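Progress note, project year one: complex with fe (iii) ion.
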Amino acid sequence: MFDRLLLNVHAATMTAHDAGGLGIIENAAVGVTGGKITFIGAEKDLPAGRPARETADGGGKWVTPAFIDCHTHLIYAGNRAAEFEKRLQGASYEEISRAGGGILSTVRATRDATEQELFDLSLRRLKTMLMEGVGTFEIKSGYGLDFETERRMLRVATRLRDETNLRVQRTFLGAHALPPEYAGRPDDYIGHICDDMLPALHAEKLVDAVDGFCENIGFSRAQIERVFKKARELGLPVKLHAEQLSNLNGAALAAQYGALSADHIEYLDEDGAAAMAKAGTVAVLLPGAFYFLREKHAPPVELLRKHRVPMAVATDHNPGTSPTLSLLLMLNMSCTHFRLTPEEALLGITRHAARALGFQSVCGTLEEGKAADLALWDVSHPRDLCYYFPRPPL
Ligand code: DI6
Ligand code: FE
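Model obtained:
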């Protein structure tokens, strides 16, 4: 007996059993029991004698796994529209950051906000993303940079998970920027992260993964490595903002620590790609930040293909470099700006995005045993999802 049976649909299962990898099944049925997929296949292959409590007619539309946004900075207060204006007048992201704006201006606003204010702001953002069929989110801290505010952000991420019943990975990004209290003392701040913040937040069960910003305006490889060592000691998976504005060989460092993903990677070189392939580290491409910063140097997609590094696509939603709430727009932009094929882009927000979170046994494909996170689209083919912007009908 199925709890629910969805009939008369076409399915893009995102499993690799056809050439494009979308795993298309025409005239499909999806059976669900206990929140999990217990049948996916051609409707004609439905086993006889398995009735359903509830049957739905999909009207010939397309069913996909609910989408996964595997890189967001969803929780913050304030906005940076004035900084956007400055950049339009010629100031660079790095200049603004070095002058105390950028990430630190969001840190000031976030430190001033209460937990409830942060929750309300973030819930509104999350609900907007839900309207595009996103069912799993990664949410980073990193706009507190002190114990109390990082804790508040991670508590908000936990509440978002628990009160919406969505799948959420909570990522500690203490090594995002140097807080003003530690100006000129980055190594002391890294010590504070490793000795105080991360162990205490982990003890409160607020952290699922650990991230950092490896960049000239962020932290060095040696500093990031100290954070990774502590994460490993605590049994937490790592990931890294790497090679976004320059090449510090951060992706290779991440791979060395078995990272789930290396993200941005516009300046990744071949050694970095090979290291990622060897470690099974996913490449998370973030076309929103590339577009919004008017970057010219696109990530080396050919190298990633050559080394068979799985590519995910995410919003990087944040107030400074990617203030978009549209994962579907990122689907389109990853094709137009990075030249992904529509198949690669779609796998990037489903199967490979799940892997970027370590959730590959749970969601990201339509397979028996996976979560019944389904999205039903009124499109004529899955490629239409990459074509329309901003939004095909869910
Ligand atoms: N890279 C990014 O694109 C975001 N963080 C990071 O390390 C930007 C964060 C911000 O500008 O507020
Ligand atoms: Fe980011």
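The first helix runs from residue 81 to 88.
The two ends are 28 Å apart (CA to CA).
No further modelling is planned for this target in the current period.
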